[in-house]
Amino acid sequence: MGDDSQLEPPPACHCTNCKMHLRKPVERSSFLMLRKLRQVLTAIDHTTDQIFEELEDYVARKTISSDVDYMPECLNALDMVRGRLEKMKFYVNDYTINLGRSVCSSDPLQKVLFADYFSSPTKNTLLIYTYLDVPKAKIRDGWLSDPFELRASDGLLYGRGVSTGKGMTVCWLNAIECWLKEHQDLPINVKIIVETLHEMGSTGLQQYMDIKKEFFLDVDVIVFGNNSWINDESPVLSCSLAGWATFGMELCGGDKHLEGLAGGLVYEPMIDVCQLMDSLVDNRQELRISQINQMVKPLSHHEWELLETASFSEYDYKEKLGIRRLRYELGKAELLQQRWCHSNITMHGIENCFSRPGSSTMLPMTVMAKFTIKLVPDQVVQQVHAHVEDYLYSKHEELKMGTTLRTYVLDSCDSFSWPFDNRFTKSTIRAIENVFHFRPELTSGIVTCLPIASLFRKHVNKPIILLPYTQRMDCSDVINESIPAQCFVNYVKTCASLMHELSMLSAKCKCDLIYEYCNRRGNAEILEAARSTMGPSGTRKNIILQIPKLSQSNDKRRDETENPLKKFLCMPFRRKKKDQETPGGSNERF
Amino acid sequence: MGDDSQLEPPPACHCTNCKMHLRKPVERSSFLMLRKLRQVLTAIDHTTDQIFEELEDYVARKTISSDVDYMPECLNALDMVRGRLEKMKFYVNDYTINLGRSVCSSDPLQKVLFADYFSSPTKNTLLIYTYLDVPKAKIRDGWLSDPFELRASDGLLYGRGVSTGKGMTVCWLNAIECWLKEHQDLPINVKIIVETLHEMGSTGLQQYMDIKKEFFLDVDVIVFGNNSWINDESPVLSCSLAGWATFGMELCGGDKHLEGLAGGLVYEPMIDVCQLMDSLVDNRQELRISQINQMVKPLSHHEWELLETASFSEYDYKEKLGIRRLRYELGKAELLQQRWCHSNITMHGIENCFSRPGSSTMLPMTVMAKFTIKLVPDQVVQQVHAHVEDYLYSKHEELKMGTTLRTYVLDSCDSFSWPFDNRFTKSTIRAIENVFHFRPELTSGIVTCLPIASLFRKHVNKPIILLPYTQRMDCSDVINESIPAQCFVNYVKTCASLMHELSMLSAKCKCDLIYEYCNRRGNAEILEAARSTMGPSGTRKNIILQIPKLSQSNDKRRDETENPLKKFLCMPFRRKKKDQETPGGSNERF
User: Fold this and answer.
1) Is A413 on the interface with B (CB under 8 A)?
2) Do residues A550 and A87 touch, judged by C-beta distance below 8 A?
3) Statement to judge: residues A390 and A458 lie in one domain
4) Is residue A305 in a domain?
5) Within a domain: A223
6) Residue B582's domain spans which residues?
7) Which tens digits make up the pLDDT trace of B236-273?
8) Is A322 in Cβ contact with B255 (below 8 Å)?
9) How many CA atoms within 13 Å lie on the side-chain side of B374?
10) Which residue from A minimizes the CA distance to B248?
């Protein structure tokens, strides 16, 4: 449904006041627009120092969402973003989130920002999702320097959050700012959602996806930063999202738990749980239900080749996760296929049993085991549910269990993939080409695991862009988290370039969704009106819609000679062939 | 070691001041002693109304130890016992117990009473264990009347605790009181331990068994009330105790838990836990380790016959426990053999996994499953441990598991049985015969599950008497808990009779354990000295060691006409043939 590929050419608009016809044909404006983009990309190259400094400010905030003590820091970081967005004429709302953690009532509630920049009803609307929180990090975990102090070394930027939400947020803020500084308006309408509970499963945000439906009505496409580079040199554009089905398997032996040595005659649900779970998997912990495994779309020859080029070291992987052995003794591509392309089953735990430290005499009589099956295209929740239910009930019958079985789907989200020739995918390819001068790799067989994107897909149902940010990570709390500085700068440019490319796609009339949407006046219309009043030679300064002079107003900028990043940026940088082709000033700097 | 059967005849005493030779030979005093016992039994028959009233007072106390709110009630009940014991010249100590429950610091700590009545170094010392707490009970659970209000109906006494600790405590207090009222001294030395945390596993008491070693030094035998009647008419004297071995089976896949859909390549400990647990049991949930099952002592022909006479209804059993089906479709005796005479395995839960309500994405990487194997004679912890460890490690190897296995014994206590011709067992048989006029059934194959007795056995290591109180119960929180009034009165008499019988056993000199024990003066010696001063015709009233006039001092006794129990006691009572043979006034009353 959300796949927008059928929208090219755009459908005829039937609303009486439609402004779509006012839009200049794409062919005529494309040269002008491309010139505008080049100006922005050059501007980005000239402000990299300031961008790194801003990243440094964000990294310094200990936005550890899993720790109640750092809730104020999360709110501070969110306020920083809010201030930046408001300066850029975004209309910003925040909504409170009560995590219900059992802490003092004086602890501040967390918030999520919903921001909106409306340029024109004739333009496409991009929703950017980003976040500011990070997993916990301490030097003693193995960090070579303070995780909350940005450090540059050998062309890499080290710091907690640089390769995840914080980094992406800074990129988007600067791409937007550069565009506004150069052209006083954005080429598209932009909405931003910024949260600080990403690492906590975005609980509160899910709720607002349903409550604030009107915010999403005019969104054309949602973009997520995606750690999908398969090696140092290959941004990979992923066109698929993993889903999941979390099951509750309840086994009930009686009405109440028994105490002491009361067993012998009663069927014990804990033992039945173990028997049923055991029946679900084989000795390699693979799901035994063949119908579910058969639903998986096979990899293409090209995707196999892509896996072969992946920068993956089995040793590093085990080191990072602190494990001794992998389930498979296979070559790199086969291992990565198991990890990225296949479904698997994970058991989380058992509710209602004795789970505290120490010993117990409790005989639990109703327990619920919880497990998740990761879904990859084309596994569908409904079918997987039916197969799991069938399997468990027939095994329960076969094993003649004396406890009563009930299964529940506790949480689920379908896997999802979209075609490579979707118009937004094509725009993204062009956006990446504008920066990298080569075509990104495309895949839907190598599945992206980004639950928040899947949740947006489920609740908001709009097309999705997974904009490649940096390399795939094996776990969220990686030690000595880093991103190549060049990769970071290129992402700022890719963000700007994506806005440009989306502006080249014809927008559709949304009057059927929002009353007289086409009649709305955005910043573009106001600017146009002001320009026509002042005449073509009107002084620019008077008509820039009160957008503050951003570079001057940023009082926090430190003296360049004191900046440790400045030193790094003057150091020789690992040059890559492809990077040297990048236009603008980046070659001079790195 | 604690088996005392080799003590007859008593060993020669080598201490210089030994008073053992002062003791009159058993043959000469037995007639006198038997007359004394008859006086006490008659006195008990004459005070049954007051005994029931006291039971009513105790039942009214909501001593629910599992609920923090009722901690003050537990302390109040303990104070009632303390007052009673102090009136009877017991020397009472209390020790505080910190359960470490996360409640307000203002909540009172629980206590355990250690009381001591020392009559003479020439007498045996009996330690009585009893308790006052009960499982929770509410009318809405299915009680026909308020569980904390004693109700008499059809010859049964209903109320929470009547068939457990509260009932037994009242019986012992009154048996002692009647003996003191009749003879101003007890025939033996008595020590009593009263606790209010029995239902919570007697945590604090276990600790004091080790700390207060000196309290237990001169104890000859410990008596526990035992719900071991196999039907309405057969008190069963059990000579065996079940033990247990609680294991922790830790499976470690990595150093830290993973989050999200991180599985696929790592071995997941939760799945391995289920596979190992499944390998431990068969489809009937019976332990697969045959060596452990083979250790069980077979039942004698007589014990089989005993099981056949048991009053057990499969329907009632399932009803009480709220279960639908039993693990076996067998006849009554075979079912009871499985329940009472066999070993079994119970799984309590898994530590360190996700055990809260709701769904999770957690992938636990180190978990510990906990299970207990109930031990019956002659299963020994050490051997069972070795077999379980062998089995698990070889299965772990056989299944080629990628996680690391470690096993722990979290808690254990050996099973234990003692011969029927043990001198304390023989005394107990005679004590029961004195009241019931027939020999109780004896068994060690039908195993008593009384963890507190097993713990005393483990920590204190003294001979044990399991004095049959009322019928076996299937669970501790039985609805409409009751005891036949006649059975209750007979237990008071059995307690008195047991004291008499133990006084007939020659005591051993304890000077090797306690310095100059034989030189200690007890109440008997003081009484003797006073008597000899006053001459044989001395006025009794002046020499009764300040023991208060118990019946008069009890101000709380209500008007007999208002007492609902009085009405019940005047009602016709279900007469049993054997009961009619009971001497004294009970026939007039029931």
Assistant:
1) no
2) yes
3) no
4) no
5) yes
6) 14-240+417-589
7) 999 999 999 999 999 999 888 888 788 889 999 999 99
8) yes
9) 30
10) A359
